[in-house]
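Hi there,

I know you've been waiting on this one. I reran it after we fixed the sequence typo, so this is the corrected version. Both the input and the resulting structure follow.
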Amino acid sequence: MSYNISIVLDKRRAKENGKFPVKLRVYSKSGNSKKVKLYSLDIDLTNDEFETIWINAENKNLRGSNNETRLKLQAIETRANNEAKEMTVFDFAKFETKLFRKSSDKNNVKYHFDLVIQKNRDNNKIGTAESYRCTLNSLAKFSKLKKKCEVEKLTFDMITVDWLKEYQNFMIANGKSYTTVAIYTRTLRVVFNNAIEDNDIIKDNYPFGKNKYKIPRTKKVKKALNSIQLKTLFDVEVLNDNEQQARDFWFFSYASNGMNFKDIALLKYSDIKDEKFSYYRAKTFDKTAEKTEIVIYLTDFTKGIISKYGNKSKTGFVFNIISSKDTAEKQYKKIKNFTRLINDHIKRIAKRNDLPNDISTYWARHSFATNSLRKGASMEFISEALNHSDLSVTKNYFAGFEDEAKKEFANSLLDF
């Protein structure tokens, strides 16, 4: 791709003062495609003034405001060319973002976080945007309290290996887990990589990797109910409609191969055909080029849940959790609130019945995986049912077999 940048006088229409606007002209050619854009510079000149100040380059005797205007235009043209040169492939959107930002934004952490947050919001990835926002808030708190630096002034070169170690200690001291530290520092690493890729910072300042800061690696806690606990939860007496709904939807997820609650909310009547329904997992849909359709066969139980809670018109979304009229942000909030409601009431049930107090919607997926294995399903079958990319991901889902199963197996070894 080739490009050409120049300062021009836009003489298509004179202003009331009889002058014309000076503009930055950017021409780009890629293959058979050509594109020209003009950017206003908030400078107006007559044709003679433009000739004197800009066209006649040999004129070195400019004074006063004329010289100031020439220097300003030179600085704009130089910066525009420098920004364009730094791009591997010229892109108007990126060029505009870089040209019209403050010069200090290149090295500013908050600026780059705001970019990725806005990009995710524009793509309706509200959950991802929220994750970046939470990380930025955490970094801002540490930077202000421990480094006496407002986040607006936090730059990439300030974030060293020692800075990250201090941040980690600060998080742990304030009751955060190593898992949370890992999530936030991985998010920060992505923002670092974005800034490097955009040629806004140099790789020498990168604080992650070998012989540098290492993001904590934590072993996922395996959270699954065993068969006895599942039966207890299924048969337990509920005290109100909210508890009934919590248990019903928890087991709908469990019986639907550990279906994520966001996917339950997004399920439509048009997805249901011939005693089964199919969907694409929202969490991984944009992460893979190959889209894998998940098929779930209906049972009497899952049919009953759809009949009980499904909307009566039997059109659009199956459950009245979100509406097609909702914005992406409103849908995100509604799904989050619904999931919180289920978690609150499933915990109340668990507490009364000696079940794990930290049970949540997340446990339904792990319980499906673990109990499927205990019932003889192959790892390959479960991996496909969970829509995992490979078996190693599936293995992380399994809570070890309960002691009774291990004893039974040990005793059977000599049962020839």
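Quick highlight: The two ends are 74 Å apart (CA to CA).

Best,
R. S.
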